Every structure is written in structure tokens, then in C-alpha cells.
Fold this sequence. Notes:
mainly alpha, 16 helices
Amino acid sequence: MATVIPIHSPLPAPAEPARARPAEQPARLSGWRLAAFSSFAVPVAAAQMPVGVYLPAIYAQHYGIPLATLGLLFLAERLWGAAADPVIGILSDRTRSRFGRRRPWIAAGGLLFGLSAIALFFPGDAVSAWSLGLTLFVFYLGWSMMQIPYLAWSGEISGQYHERTRIATYGTVAGSSALLLVLILPTIADQLRPGDGPLKLAAMGTVVLVTLAIALVLTLRAFPEAPAPATAPRPVPFAEALRVILRDRLLLRVMGSDFAVTFGQLVRSTLFVFFVSSYMGLQHWASGLFLLQFVFGIAAGPIWMKVALKFGKHRTAVLGEGLQVAINLGLLLVTPSAFPLLIALTVAQGLAQGSGNLMLRAIVADVADQHRLDTGVDRTALFFSVFSLTTKAGMAAAVGVALPLVAWLGFNPQGHNTPEALTGLLLVFALGPAIAHAVSAWLIHGFPIDEARHAEIRRALHARDAAPSSPAE
């Protein structure tokens, strides 16, 4: 048994690894390789918008599936996808093969995801609730099999503190670009053949399938996988895995902060069209303003990356969330006659958008390093699966809170609204995200793993990995 290195004791200088685990990647990763690796975010993000926004309406209008049935199907499949995430994370951490721990899962998940996407976006005429339910089951299984190992791999490409910020930034920009594309496609389809739901599905499905085929090749060849620990983590029951997560205070802080920032973003997104259409009385501007926000959101990724390289990830997250609070509070000053102010706040929202998500995603890998130092067990994929779970929970909670709340305040999306009802809509639209972003900043403020502390963690891990014997994992 190797000597255990106390967390806060003086740490030895880095030693040349004698065995399994390789030296760190070069200090600065190739931008071309990062772009290739991050291309995988394109098909995943390109599928996210259609599945969440367009598919239910098109399947109801064009294929006659009742709304209540669709609601139950999509709810059940989202719950299934959320439940699959930690299972896939645990299995990926335990996988040992000559292709690595992450590649086999990504390749197999990509196959399932692609086949089910064909059935989902090109359904033909014989569509039933049963066939849709089965397709969604396979679709979300493939999604989890791809995404969780991919996120874990993204945290393992480099052990360098700032390089992890670059990796997360490349993925965020790629995903935002894909979302922008699938926001534009339905608009173009409506101009060509108004009301043609199957055309919209086919256009978006084509983007998903083509980018998936390209991204799988690029991503799987972009970087080598680091060798896995010699011994796989032992199988643990669900209850024990839950205890591992609940005992890791750093992970809980990141999860809570991510839940809050996602909740705030989705409250705003859920009510955006209602706010512009009903409160501002500008229905024809709703889609355009939403698109404007996304355009500036893409440009914001590299800006926040440079800020993080100078000030660190958790400080940058706090700064970004603070700006979000100020921007959303500024919405309280918007009146139906103050359209220029709304445009300015929408641009500012786009520039601040994603700052918290980006930094928190990069921090998860640092937390996994600290956990491996403390316990001797590598649970990177499990930690990323839990991070994914809180994101999905935040999205679901935002819709579940925002819509009933504005309805309780008297807002009616289909009829006349009193001034009091419109004021209630404004308050929820502005204060809901402002409060959520403030909570996110509070949770991540003073986070103990900064660049210096992370360097100590990595030195300790290298020293332990280079020792004559290593603790059983």
C-alpha cells in the first residue's frame, strides 16, 4: 500500500510516471483538435431544440397523437433518460477495453441515437403512440450512452486548470452554433411551405444525422484516451452511489449552482415569447429577439474564456451570474414603449448567456480530481452524469414553476389580460431569473479549488500514480 498523502500536507514535486498513467497533455492543446473533439456537441445540441420544442406540436398536428398522450410519453422518456445517466456513468468508469473507457460507449450510443433519429425525424405515415414511445426510449438511451462518456472524456483530455476552460468553451460554442442553425431552419421551411411539419422535421433531422456521422469520426480520432486505472471501481449499489455523491460537498455546490443557473435561464426562455407578444404587444418580434440573443451568445463564449484564463473559473462564474442578476433586474424598467431598452437587454443577455454553465462544466473535472485524491477512486463519468441530471432537473423545474405561477397571477396566453396580470408576467420574467442567478453566484462564491490548489492536486495524483504500488480503486 502506498503512503497516503494528506490533502493539506506539503505535496511532493511531480515525478516521472513509472507505470500506467501517462504524463499530462501539452500545456496548450491544438485548437484544431479541440474543434474536432467539440464537433460532437453539434448533433447533440441540434437534436435538443427540435425534441423539446417542435416534435410534440408536429406529432400532434400532423400525426394525430393526442396531446395528453404526448405529454406522458415525453415526460416518461425524459425521466428514463435522467435515470440512465448515472448508470451509464458508473458503467463507463468501469469499462476496460483496448479502445478505452469512453470510445466504445460513444460509438455504440451514436449508432442507437442515429437509428432512432431516423425513425423520429422521418416517421413516415404509420405513426402510433407505441412506436413513438419505443423510438424515444432508444433515442434517450443512445443520447445518454454518448453524452455522459463524452463529458467525462472532455474532463480527462487535460489535467491543466485553464485548458479545461478552453475545452468547455469550444464545446459551448459548437453547441450554441447548432442551436442557432435549428432555430433558423423552421423559419426557412415556413417561408417555403408554410405549416408543413414533416418538412421541418426532415430539415432538422438531416442536420442531426449528417453532423452526427461527421462528428463521430472527428471526435473519436481527436485525442487519445488516458489509460484507465489498473483496477476498475468495484460495483456499488444505487444507495451507496447516492451516498458518495451526497458526501462530496464540492460536487453538491457545483450541482446546486448549475441547477440554479439552468432554472433561471429556462424561466426566461419559457416566458420569453409571452413577454414579447403579450406584455410588449410585439408578437412579430418574439422569434427575432430570441434569435438575436443566440447570435450574441455564440460570440460570448471566447470572451468568457479569456476572462476565466485571467481570473479563474469560479470567479468568472460569479461575475457572469452577477451580470445576469443586473440584466434581469433591468427588465423591471421595460415598458411596452421602451423597445430599444428591451433590445439592449436582450443583447446583454446574449453576451452573458452561458457564462455560468461553461465554467461549472469545467469545474466538474477539477472536483473529480479532488475526489480521486481523497478516495483513490476515479468517478469522473459518474460526476458528469450527476451534473447532467441537475441540468435536466433545472429545466423541468423552471417550466413546472413559471407557467403555473403566471397563470395563478391571472395571465392568459390566449385572451385579454388585465394590467395586473401583465405586471405579474413581468415580475416572474424578471425576478425569477434574477433570484436564481443570485443563488447560483452565492453557491459557487469562494470555491476552494482555484488554479493553485488544482496544481497541488495534480502533483499529488502524479506522485501517487508513480509510486511502486498504488491503492486499490
